[in-house]
Amino acid sequence: MATADDTSAMARHTRVPWLTLKRRETIEAWLFVSPTLIGFLIFFLGPLIAVVIYSMSEWNLLSGGQVFVGLANYRDALAENPDFWHVIRNSVIFAMGLVPMNMALALILAIALSRPRRGVVFFRTVFFAPVVTSAVAWAIVWKFLLQGEGGTVNQLLALVGVNGPNWLREPDWAMAAVIVTRVIKMVGLNMILYIAALQSIPRDYEEAARLEGATGWQVFRMVTWPLLAPTTLIIMVITTIGSFKVFDHIYLMTGGGPENGTLVLAFYIYEQAFEFFNVGYASALAMIMFVIVLMLTIVQLLLRQRGAT
Amino acid sequence: MTQGQLDRLKRAMWVLSLSILAIPFVFPFLWMVSSGFKSATEIFGQPSLVPRIWRWTNFVEVFEYQPFAQQYFNSLYIAGLVTVLTLILSSLAGYALARMRFAGAGLLMLFLVSALMVPEEVTIIPNFFLMRWLGLMDTHGPLVLLPVFGPHGVMATFLMRQYFVALPKELEEAGRMDGLSRLGIWWKIALPMSRPALAAVAIITFLFSWNLFLEPLVFISSLEKFTLPLALANFTDAYGLPLWHLQLAATSLAVVPILIVYLIAQRQIIESFAMSGVKG
């Protein structure tokens, strides 16, 4: 079919003088990208513009019509609704707990698993397994394990004489629990990014430092760590962005509770939009999330450019 | 201590510390499967990895409690469809962006890159109204359209583009000499050469769709149209409390096949995630 098209196109080409090779290439290229582009305009760019308009409307699905209110929803979030800052605080705590823990563990695992030796493939497979598992399954199992009474974690703690808390029912413990279980779920991804970076460092550098009499720690501190800096920065930004988007994990483990102790931004948007039907306010929240992620992404792109040169 | 003994000690320490670290990664899977075989009462009895009585009936009840087979099938066919569509569209667009010179290419790239910055939560509210207007509420339409055309599809397009850019051009030029059209070159030459990239896109796309939760939660309301993640979250009694033994049995049924495929193809799968680089 392709060849038949081609010969007819060639024939047309000889007949129609305006259809130069360059023009033809442009038309063909746009045909190649058009399915992606049209879908993108309808299901992505259109909605992105719409959410800006929604965010400037007073619009509750339950009470009826859409009224233009300018920036009132943003003022509501930033200055009037105490929930908003509580949610931002939770999101920041979540990110500040998750990102360093994830990165430190990822780096330790990567260092332990970057050189080929017996058992490396096995351990890499183990530490990466939660990444391919659905967040819903992961959250369900951990919610089960972390129950206060009769939960497996507490039963095991009791064996060594520790009286475990009701993990998911006390605000501070709940936050700690969702952070740690999320780290276990996702750390494998950063681990492989670090392994790739470690493997791209020439062995000579390390050996030279060794010959100078440097200890293992000094080699890491003076040679490996500085060479990992670009990777570290990028992983940091990606992981931070990811932490702001966490929704299913929280929805299933705590439902944002207890006492809104784990109510983070992504969950708050969902709740406002699809449980309370505050479309205008939820759209303003979505825009705020967009701006946060956009700023983080710009930082990432700048870092990448610096890393590339 | 001799050098040999020191090496063995080091190796033992390495194995021991990694094994301890591995506990929270492996234990949940083991406990999930084992609890799926326990009765509702044994689940909260003395902790034991091996069930005292193996209750195979849990796995029958899972299918009686809700249309679990249908829900399982829904997830499979949706993930399959999303994967095939994403492969076709992303390799077409990725090829054009990598190989063809056309007016507006730079602008288009910039335009698409911007999609990578926007979380789904931002566009899901307008998409809710769009889908309602299209009459696609409580259908599988949104679960196919949004992953294919959203940020994930764009990410796949870029992954394909990166791969095409790095391919040698000679074969394609030879194909052109032989009179192949652009479409023919793409299909007969470029695609067969980019199997690793296609495999990577297929793997991450399938898992992305299979694990999707927010979109089904927002768009699907009928039990028989649920996908697996929704179905798993739905094993609750009349008071909304989890029916743990059924929920964990169902979760095992959803997770174990994926884990088996993962164990067989772990190298390929881990590499696919490394190629996509920026998920989660």
Overall description:
- The complex is a heterodimer of chains A (309) and B (280).
- By secondary structure, chain A is mostly helical.
- Chain A contains 13 helices and two strands; from the N terminus they run ααββααααααααααα.
- Chain A has helices at 2-15, 21-54, 72-80, 82-113, 120-132, 135-145, 152-159, 171-199, 203-211, 216-245, 248-253, 265-275, 279-308; strands at 57-59, 66-68.
- In chain A, strands 1-2 form a two-stranded antiparallel ribbon.
- In chain A, β1 and β2 (66-68) form a beta hairpin.
- The radius of gyration of chain A is 26 Å and the shape is globular.
- The radius of gyration of chain B is 24 Å and the shape is globular.
- In chain B, α3 runs parallel beside α6 (141-149), α3 packs across α7 and α10 packs across α14.
- Chain B contains 14 helices and no strands.
- Chain B has 280 residues and is mainly alpha-helical.
- Chain B has two domains: 3-55, no CATH class; 66-276, MetI-like (MetI-like fold, Orthogonal Bundle), CATH 1.10.3720.
- At the A-B interface, α1, α2, α4, α5 and α6 of A face α1, α3, α4, α5 and α6 of B.
Task: List the main descriptive attributes of the protein structure presented here.
heterodimer, A: 309 residues, mainly alpha, MetI-like fold, 2 domains, two-stranded antiparallel ribbon, 13 helices, 76% helix, globular, disordered N terminus, B: 280 residues, 14 helices, 0% strand
